[in-house]
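Ops channel
N.P.: pipeline sanity check, posting one input/output pair.
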């Protein structure tokens, strides 16, 4: 009997301290790969971020299913950085 495979997702945030903005997303890629990708090809929501901005990447939650991450991301984005502009992307 073959069991269905499920890709595990982790939630990350990119925090732009220069602009007081945050980007919350979900991915199955390593965090270093996400950071590298954003350096060269930013998602449209954060295309205005510049290399001189102070941006920190960190893992927020690990081991979620796609369904769990879809519920977690909006709640986290609302609560994490009160008063900051926060952008959400569900899957990198």
């Amino acid at each position: 009997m073959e069991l269905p495979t499920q890709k595990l997702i982790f939630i990350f945030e990119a925090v732009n301290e220069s602009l007081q903005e945050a980007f919350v997303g979900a991915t199955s890629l390593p965090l270093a790969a996400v950071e590298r990708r954003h350096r060269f090809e930013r998602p449209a929501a954060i295309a205005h971020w510049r290399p001189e901005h102070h941006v920190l990447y960190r893992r927020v939650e690990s081991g979620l299913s796609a369904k769990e991450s879809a519920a977690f991301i909006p709640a986290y984005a609302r609560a994490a950085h009160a008063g900051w502009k926060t952008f959400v992307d569900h899957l990198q």
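N.P.: looks fine end to end. The CA atoms of residues 2 and 39 lie 40 Å apart.
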